[in-house]
Specification:
Distance between the termini of chain B: 47 Å
Strand order of the largest sheet of chain B: 5-4-6-7-1-8-13-12-11
Oligomer: heterodimer
Low-confidence stretches of chain A: none
Number of domains of chain B: 2
Shape of chain A: globular
Helix content of chain B: 10-25%
CATH topology of the largest domain in chain B: Peroxisomal Thiolase, Chain A, domain 1
Distance between the termini of chain A: 21 Å
CATH superfamily of the largest domain in chain B: Thiolase/Chalcone synthase
Radius of gyration of chain A: 19 Å
Largest interface: A-B, 46 and 55 residues
Largest sheet of chain A: 9 strands, mixed
Mean pLDDT of chain A: 96
Strand order of the largest sheet of chain A: 3-2-4-7-1-8-11-10-9
Order of helices and strands of chain A: EHEHEHEHHHHEEEHEHHHEHHHHEE
Structural class of chain B: alpha+beta
Largest sheet of chain B: 9 strands, mixed
Number of strands of chain A: 11
């Protein structure tokens, strides 16, 4: 295994716009909002940027193609701007590009910025994609919830979990995230909910009801990265560094090779193993202080806790029900409300997750600050359980 | 051995509606429909059309190994989805007929299929397959909406092992216009029923039938099964009486269980009769068009050895009675309804990709790896693997007739569907291979992991902007495995 980038890249500034139905804001406005917070946090000027990576997923609705939208909105100084897209993990791709440029020495200071302007679609939920001439001919027309909902049928069949027990555990995922989101003034959905509300909500894709699905939002998030040495020279004496940055992409195994049982994320397990190795983590259950996982749907978060080896296989539904990932636990998940309540402006989500972990590690998370976190995990997944990209990043204080 | 019918089968779509349900929806508007409110009619789901019906009928009639021997294939319908693009060749590809098969579409009148059957019987030395099917759209609150049904039938004709041989035939050509549909119109324009029956059908059927009986050297009383389908009530009895056919020999014309299926109806009743016919039985089938075509068959001993895969009787048994008239209206596209923005999705098809992937998309042909035995859909140059990827090792491996089981599923209520919820999931095929699928024909009680499925060829998307429709295979619950608990004539769903 390559030696990786552990402690070779520091995050010196982050910003995140308020997420939600930003009827009054354009995509440019959202990017500016996140970016100004990030450079102020970093204490740098735009002229100090060497390169930028910019992520957006659904360019038809939001911002357009290429690197131009970010360069123009932020008036970047004619530097390299690369647009990246990797489904819902696009935000993590922007961070990866910027971090690798710094680690390679190609840039001293680089920007990662992600943005999505979803509320110009005219309806709730993500727009249906046209996957391409061949896929159009043979792929089932399924919404995102219908793709992820299938995890529940696979999980129940594999572990013999009663449908009602699973539905209640899934409900707890959402109840917990709503409680956390209610404390976050940048979150899209800020109301607490009850189990009764979750169980009686309209069905979206069985067994996922309305409250099993994350918010679809407008928003942007940004990160400024550099080397630890430059960070210190800029006054960031104890910077947050990247411990691991891994990406695993499906190759058809899940959808074409008949051993995957539909109950878990093959890619998450691979990316998690590599990320723990890169970060030098051998007992994630005790070493990970907090996690921000890709909770696009409640069932996604549930099985992901097993795929990250934070819960034993077949036990996440019990762990979740027992409050193991609640905010007052030893290893809380979605302290900021997650995709569920902070919201899911696709191209920004990976960076939004990093934003929360960054704030927590610096002790700047205000009323939702957890005590003494040392390592935070960011799990950002795009696609569907049958075919996806999974990014895992681990952040911590330098030397942690 | 004499040339004749060697295989037969049919198909009736799953959905049913009591004619009284249709009448009750329109009673305020057209009380005159009351007289037609008995019995039930069959109708298709949103993803069925004459092509999908014909394909199911051929699958019912002809086992997969026999299809490679087909040399001529006629597809007959007055409601083809395509006016230009041969419908038969698309069906032939889906069915795995050989590339050398001579395909043709026959249309324009309800006796088209009997004409094709007559020609096939008179063309020794070739194996001919004839399929006929209809999904004729009807205006809301019309008498035709009450009387028509939907479905298809298929018959193979060959030189050996005939279950029934043609003994005689009679043809009449007469530009008698009971109804018409211009190329630009969706619906039939129908003249007065009494005139059609008394001045038209009775005379035409009588004339053609008498010629056929004479050609066969038979008297009408020697006919055991008389088939004379029309959409008019009691017309069969009137024709039989005039012809001197014993009333006990009039076949069940399926009007109470299916409805009139136009160009497919003669073949459909013939296939139904053959399911229970005895050696020696004589069958007279006559169907009107602009004129009439009458054929006389005699059943042979081979009938004891040949049965369709399911047969019309079983298709009729698996009915799913619908109580909401609007389903019929929506599926027959007579209602303008709000599809929402998700229904605005562009479904343009790249014809170049469709042709390039024709075996995969239309034929559902996977690949089987020579090296590892892996079955993969769709096949690719580099095979999928957990540890051993092979290059260019796939041999064609058809999946359409292989049973499958549900690995995972969900009922999608978010994405646009003409029949929500839309069931989607993943299936594994017995013998290897898996694919993400859309399910179809799901009953109200849904599906579960492990359920057995069969693949069916269905409409995938309608491109209403360009008038195109694309097809693909979907997974349907294999009701045959549950048939013992579904012996009722019609179950409510």
């Amino acid at each position: 295994m390559p030696r990786g980038i552990k402690d070779r890249v520091a995050i010196i500034g982050m910003g995140c716009s308020r997420f939600g139905e930003r009827w009054d804001s354009s995509a440019d406005d959202l990017m500016v909002e996140a970016y100004l917070e990030a450079i102020a946090d970093a204490g740098i000027e735009t002229s100090q940027l060497d390169a930028a990576w910019y992520s957006t997923h659904i360019d038809e609705i939001g911002l357009g193609k290429g690197g131009l939208p970010a360069s123009i909105a932020l008036r970047l100084p004619n530097i390299a701007v690369t647009r990246v897209e990797n489904f819902c993990a696009s935000g993590s791709e922007a961070l990866r590009g910027a971090a690798y440029a710094v680690a390679a020495g190609a840039a001293d200071i680089a920007l990662a910025i992600g943005c999505e302007k979803l509320k110009d679609t005219g309806y709730g939920g993500l727009p249906m994609r046209r996957p391409g001439p061949m896929a159009d001919l043979i792929h089932p027309d399924a919404s995102a919830p219908a793709n992820f909902a299938q995890l529940a049928s696979g999980y129940r069949a594999k572990h013999g979990v009663d449908a009602n027990d699973l539905k209640r555990a899934m409900a707890h995922v959402s109840i917990k995230s709503h409680a956390n989101g209610a404390q976050n003034d940048k979150a899209h959905l800020r109301r607490e909910i009850t189990e009764e509300q979750v169980l009686n909500a309209p069905m979206i894709a069985e067994p996922l009801g309305l409250f099993d699905c994350c918010g679809v939002s407008d928003g942007a998030a940004a990160a400024i990265v550099t080397t630890p040495e430059i960070a210190k020279s800029l006054g960031h004496t104890n910077p947050i560094t990247i411990k691991a940055l891994q990406l695993s992409v499906s190759n058809g195994y899940e959808s074409q090779f008949s051993t995957w049982d539909g109950s878990y994320f093959h890619t998450t397990r691979i990316a998690a193993r590599k990320a723990y190795q890169e970060a030098g983590i051998d007992d994630p259950k005790s070493q990970i202080s907090l996690s921000e996982v890709h909770d696009c749907f409640s069932i996604t978060e549930l099985v992901t806790m097993e795929d990250l080896f934070l819960s034993d296989e077949g036990n996440a539904w019990r762990d979740i029900r027992d409050g193991r990932y609640d905010i007052d636990s030893a290893s809380p998940c979605q302290v900021d409300g997650g995709l569920k309540c902070f919201g899911h402006p696709v191209g920004a989500s990976g960076l939004r997750m990093a934003y929360e972990v960054y704030l927590q590690l610096l002790g700047r998370a205000g009323n939702r600050q957890i005590s003494d976190p040392s390592l935070g995990l960011i799990h950002n997944l795009g696609g569907s359980p049958q075919s996806n990209v999974c990014s895992i990043a681990i952040l911590g204080q330098e030397g942690a | 051995m004499a040339r004749g019918i060697t295989h037969f089968g049919g198909y009736v779509p799953r959905l049913r509606m009591a004619r009284d349900t249709i009448f009750q929806a329109h009673a305020w508007l057209n009380p005159g429909l009351r007289g037609a409110n008995s019995g039930i009619r069959a109708f298709g789901d949103w993803d069925e059309d004459p092509l999908t019906y014909a394909i199911e009928a051929v699958r019912d009639a002809l086992p997969e190994p026999n299809r490679k021997a087909v040399e001529r294939f006629n597809l007959c319908s007055t409601s083809f989805p395509f006016a230009y693009r041969q419908n038969a060749s698309l069906a032939a590809t889906a069915l795995g007929l050989p590339r050398s098969v001579q395909c043709s579409d026959l249309s324009g009148s309800d006796n088209a299929a009997l004409l094709a059957l007559s020609q096939a019987c008179r063309s020794p030395g070739s194996t001919s397959l004839i399929a006929a099917s209809e999904r004729v759209r009807t205006p809301a609150a019309s008498m035709m909406e009450m009387r028509l049904g939907e479905g298809g039938a298929a018959i193979q004709v060959g030189d050996e092992n005939a279950v029934a041989v043609l003994m005689g035939e009679g043809h009449v050509t007469d530009d008698f216009v009971d109804r018409f549909r211009s190329s630009a119109d969706a619906f039939d324009y129908v003249w007065e029923e009494r005139w059609i029956r008394d001045e038209g059908y009775s005379r035409l059927a009588l004339e053609a039938s008498q010629k056929a009986l004479s050609d066969a050297g038979l008297e009408s009383r020697q006919i055991n099964h008389f088939i004379a389908p029309t959409y008019l009530p009691k017309a069969q009895q009137q024709i039989a009486r005039k012809l001197g056919i014993d009333s006990g020999s009039i076949s069940d014309h399926l009007m109470d269980t299916c409805g009139y299926v136009g160009a497919a109806h003669g073949l459909l009743v013939l296939a139904t009769v053959l399911e229970t016919a005895e050696p020696g039985d004589r069958i007279l089938v006559v169907q009107m068009g602009q004129g009439a075509t009458a054929l006389v068959f005699q059943v042979t001993e081979v009938i004891n050895d040949v049965r369709p895969a399911r047969g019309v009787a079983e298709w009729l048994r698996r009915g799913d009675l619908q109580k909401d008239y609007l389903k019929l209206a929506v599926f027959n596209r007579v209602l303008d309804w709000d599809r929402g923005m998700r229904g605005e999705r562009d479904t343009k098809t790249a014809l170049s990709a469709l042709h390039r992937e024709s075996d995969v998309v239309t034929g559902l042909i996977a690949g089987k790896c020579r090296k590892t035995g892996l079955v993969q859909f769709p096949p690719t140059r580099l095979s999928v693997s957990s540890n051993e990827t092979a290059l260019d090792q796939f041999e064609p491996y058809p999946l359409s007739e292989r049973p499958a089981r549900v690995v995972s599923y969900s009922a999608d209520r978010l994405s646009f569907s003409l029949h929500p919820p839309s069931y989607v999931g993943l299936v594994d095929f017995e013998g290897g291979g898996r694919m993400p699928v859309q399910f179809t024909d799901i009953r109200a009680d849904g599906i579960e992991t492990g359920d057995r499925m069969r693949m069916v060829f269905r409409v995938k998307d309608y491109d209403e902007q360009r008038g195109f429709r694309r097809y693909f295979w979907k997974a349907q619950p294999d009701t045959r495995s549950q048939s013992s608990e579904e012996e009722t004539t019609c179950r409510e769903g």
